[in-house]
Automatic annotation (TrEMBL):
The keyword Lyase does not apply. It is found in: Nucleus. InterPro entries: FHY3/FAR1, MULE_transposase_dom, Znf_PMZ, Znf_SWIM. Putative transcription activator involved in regulating light control of development. GO terms for cellular component: nucleus. This is Protein FAR1-RELATED SEQUENCE. It comes from Solanum chacoense. It comes from the Eukaryota. Belongs to the FHY3/FAR1 family.
Length: 438
């Protein structure tokens, strides 16, 4: 809690134990959602949202802020960083907002900060709606943003759009263009998004509390709903865990990549990857374009279905280095979504490769990820306090009991009893009533 000189409450940050444990696993990409604050809801809320091994959104902490100021943001980010054991996310996604941007630069200098494209596109009607020829401009803008594969395509299409519609001095479009390196998909190909990229026109980042909060929800009601929302998410994750472990998914092709990853990925991620395997059939030609030592550039042609059922042929360049087991496609599916695309799979297939190289199978999507990766909470810690170390030690000990407690019914009963007993002993010495609030 952050109090002013008179002892009045300014900002609050909290993270419950489950969210904190989750953060220890999924430290790579976070979405800082300040939409409740910037859209003037009754609750001045900022939510830290990540994505788990099933691609489900998960809460990684919450803040209530005195106002939309740099000082408030800096305070809440620092509080989050301390609770998260000083781990810097690789990528931070936010809406396009100057105050937020300065605060992020100050607190997370090592993270890549990117703007959520879906937020920008949502503003199009408001910002461009008044323009003569709005519908045509909107279409041209969408084409420029979503269809180009290289910065050159984007720049050329943007120039044509500006000239054709005479919008060179439109303030919003100008500022958007100046920031393009932070939101235009062609410039984000080296940023890892773990599926939170919204690089395709049908993708959006949904707010974690959307169904639980409306503009007039009072704080007290929100706190009840907060618990409900969290419970629901944890249940969904437990269900997905069970589903992923209990049976093998049905295969749709005879492709070896499909069989290989059906045994590894969680159910949902496998479903997404399976679509890429199926869509290898829409790629009808793989040819060698250029050879430079070990590196070969291939051209993969794909038949894609455009708006209005229009069929179009698209060319994708794929770099392949057999010695380094490296395959990189211009569509950058791997960085955006965390698995290989149909084009890269075609190139591997073309070269007689039967197994996807291990570096393209991310641990964060594996069904037994939590078991494989007991979080190393001390590493990278810049602000390791005594409490953080206690937390870390307790967490490891508890996790070991959980893992071994599922071996048999007898193991389970002993583990559960031990937990209940230790909880009551801890409660016995507990003095602070609100143990989850920090
Ligand atoms: Zn591709």
């Amino acid at each position: 809690m952050d109090l002013n000189d008179e002892g009045q409450l300014r900002n609050v940050f909290w993270i419950d134990a489950r969210s904190r444990a989750a953060y220890a696993y999924f430290v790579d990409v976070i979405y800082i959602d300040n939409s409740y604050l910037s859209n003037k809801y009754e609750i001045p809320l900022v939510a830290f949202v990540g994505t788990n091994h099933h691609g489900q959104s998960m809460l990684l902490g919450c803040g209530l802020l005195a106002g939309q100021t740099k000082a408030s943001y800096v305070w809440v980010f620092k509080a989050w960083l301390t609770c998260s054991l000083g781990r810097f996310p690789q990528t931070i996604i936010t809406e396009r907002c100057k105050v937020l941007e300065t605060a992020i630069n100050e607190v997370f200098p090592r993270s890549l900060h990117r703007f959520a494209l879906s937020h920008i596109m949502r503003k199009v009607p408001e910002k461009l709606g008044g323009l003569h020829n709005y519908d045509v401009i909107r279409k041209a803008l969408f084409k420029t943003i979503y269809e180009g594969l290289k910065p050159f395509d984007f720049e050329a299409a943007w120039r044509v759009m500006i000239q054709r519609f005479g919008v060179g001095d439109h303030e919003w479009l100008c500022s958007l263009y100046n920031d393009r390196a932070k939101w235009a998909p062609v410039y984000l190909k080296d940023t890892f998004f773990a599926g939170m990229a919204t690089a395709r026109s049908n993708e959006t980042l949904t707010a974690f509390f959307d169904k639980y909060v409306h503009k007039q929800t009072p704080l007290k009601e929100f706190l009840d709903k907060y618990e409900l929302a969290l419970q629901k998410k944890f249940k969904e994750e437990a269900l997905a865990d069970m589903e992923s472990r209990s049976s093998n998914p049905e295969l749709k092709t005879r492709c070896s990549f499909e069989l290989q990853l059906s045994k590894v990925y969680t159910r949902e991620i496998f479903k997404r990857f399976q679509l890429e395997v199926e869509e290898m059939y829409s790629c009808f030609s793989t040819t060698q374009l250029h050879v430079d030592g070990q590196v070969v550039i291939f051209l993969v042609k794909e038949r894609v279905l455009e708006e209005g059922n229009r069929r179009e042929i698209r060319d994708y360049e794929v770099l392949y280095n057999r010695t380094a087991a490296e395959v990189r496609c211009i569509c950058s599916c791997f960085n955006f979504y965390g698995y290989l695309c149909r084009h890269a799979l075609c190139v591997l297939n073309f070269n007689g490769v039967e197994e996807i190289p291990s570096k393209y199978i991310l641990s964060r999507w594996k069904k037994d990820y939590k078991r494989l990766c007991a979080p190393d909470v001390e590493s990278n810690s810049t602000e390791s306090t005594e409490q953080v170390q206690w937390y870390s030690q307790l967490y490891r000990s508890a996790l070991q009991v959980v893992e071994e407690g599922v071996i048999s019914l007898d193991h389970y009963k002993v583990a559960l009893n031990a937990f209940e007993e230790s909880l009551s002993r801890v409660h016995h010495i507990e003095e602070k009533p609100n143990k989850n609030l920090l």
